[in-house]
Write a structure and sequence with these properties.
The complex is a heterodimer of chains A (251) and B (240). Helices cover 75% and strands 0% of the residues of chain A. Chain A is built from ten helices and no strands. Chain A is globular and about 60 Å long. Chain A starts with a helix and ends with a helix. Chain B is 32% helix and 28% strand. In chain B, the strands form two sheets. In chain B, strands 5-6-7-3-8-9 form a six-stranded mixed beta sheet, with helices on both faces. Chain B has a three-stranded antiparallel beta sheet with strand order 2-1-4, with helices on one face. Chain B is globular and about 55 Å long. Chain B starts with a strand and ends in an 8-residue tail after the last strand. The chains are: A mainly alpha (251), B alpha/beta (240). The interface between A and B is medium-sized, with 29 and 30 residues.
Chain lengths: 251, 240
Amino acid sequence: MENFKDLLFEFVKADFKLRYKNSALGFIWVLLKPFLMFLILYLVFNFIFKSQDPNYALNLLLGIIIFYFFSESTMRGLTSLWDRSSIILKVNFNRQLVIFAPIINAFINFFFSMTIFFIFWFFAPTPITWWWLIFPVYILILALFILGFSFYASVWYARARDLANIWEVVLSLLFYVTPIVYPINIIPAQYHSMMNINPLTSIIRDSRLILIYGHMPGLYSIIYVGGVGLFLAITGWFYFKKSMKKIAEEL
Amino acid sequence: MGDNIAIKIEGVSKTFWIPKEKRITLKDRFLSFYRRNNYEKFVALSDISFEVKKGESVGIVGPNGSGKSTLLKILAGIYAPDSGKVAVHGKIVSFLELGVGFNYELTGRENIYLNGVILGLKKKEIDTKFDSVVTFSGIDRRFLSTPIMHYSSGMIVRLAFAVAAHIEADIYVMDEVLAVGDVEFQEKSITFFREKLSLGRTLVFVSHDRNAVDKYTNRVLSLRNGRLVSVDNQNMTGGI
């Protein structure tokens, strides 16, 4: 459809406005939520368990912000088709937009919540290197995962509404099997390769490596997560397209 | 195929498998795993064929459950037919409902844009048509920045209709929604249809109310139990 861009823009705008309407702090919540989550976890893990890592705060904050982007966008991507069912049942338009809009909104939130990271970074700067330029590539790869997940899960969600509850539980599990609040080296080495299967592990580890330590990320891991992410997004796209023929009958 | 055909439907059929109980959670799915044959077959449309010529105004009537909504949704591209062919020549726009995508928490202005792009307009086109839409709706400009939940239901319908009236297409497919409302509103929609027809546009109008269809169309197709039972050309002198 020729007005694809305009339609996407209006969807994103409407989502954005509705989200912060009738709330006193409005958009500030985007910064406040990951920050408060960080504060709680920081207090618990730094003071009670006494972390040895001098960069613990930055590591934790970056991990939380990236994970929060993942959890928010997958949760919203999951319900996106269903949320727009009243329009889908009445007008034929490019259905993929329905998936893109909430993910773009979650990305906008992510973009602004990165400012908290840079405020912290400002007070304890780490070296800026050319590798910083690769950081957006990791976010792009993460977006591929989110998109791929949403293409599949939004269709399944239309059939079984339990999926939102299940995914919520999976997300809280993922939060703890991904080295976010703890460093990976507290886990016995023989489990590391298993933990690396989780793409969030690689994405968060390499993002920290780049932004906090100024190191080159592992080439192998970027190929692995990039490849899996691309595969998921492409197959998801075809699955979604195929499912759209019948979706009006399932909503 | 002749150049004067707007819509050609050939042997279109559509069957739904309706679950006896709507299975919406996993538990329901697992439970029903043991109970087979839980679906009821419902033939919504069987072997429908007809043509609509360019510039024609065609009504589709039938009682509830006759398949007219299914046919409408197939024309609108929302359902895909199980078999048969649907050929549309020209730009088609369907109004199954007025104000699709309207959100009560958004302002009148925001809803005009949202509804407009959903109906296929570009943002630029809405920019240029905006004043005309507002004038057409008759809504006081002071209220454009007010969330439409504070509008009266009449205002909302007028706003929705105003946007719809500014959509340019070759073929308009409409549900009876456009015929509802008060006398003034009906006048407006008749003018709308008349204008479109005078420009050589094609109209397809679906309703269960024969009288409403007679008012707007010059050919009527009757559906019953998913079959086309009659094509009535006698209304040539009537219509609009």
